Amino acid sequence: MQSIKAKAYSLLARRSYFSKQLKHKLLEKGYPQEEIKNLIDELTRRGWLNDLELAKRYCEQQQRRGYGPKLIALKLREKAGPIDISLEESEEAAIALVRKRYMPLQREKVIRALLRRGFSFELINKVLSHISKE
Strand, helix or coil at 10? Predict the structure, then answer.
């Protein structure tokens, strides 16, 4: 069996992982939990694991894809556990998404679609009012 360090470096060489994800991967491979904890602490100290930076990049990526802050926060909690990161609702992002994907749809469909994307109802009403004025 490959050493735990070699396996972790092999995984991290391919892509970035949250600590929680790496721990889960190593547990699946049958490594002892205590060794995993020590390794994750060491990788964090050495800069190989940085949950906060990865969370910021993940949030930016999801915002570019048109997801709202509520859905991004939910997905982030699933991947990384509780991370304290500020997500602001972007009116511009919601307007762009409505214009691009939902303009031909009825108002109710637009509301449901944006709610599924993680935008708040208050922001959706504001955006729809803004667009209808144009």
Answer: helix
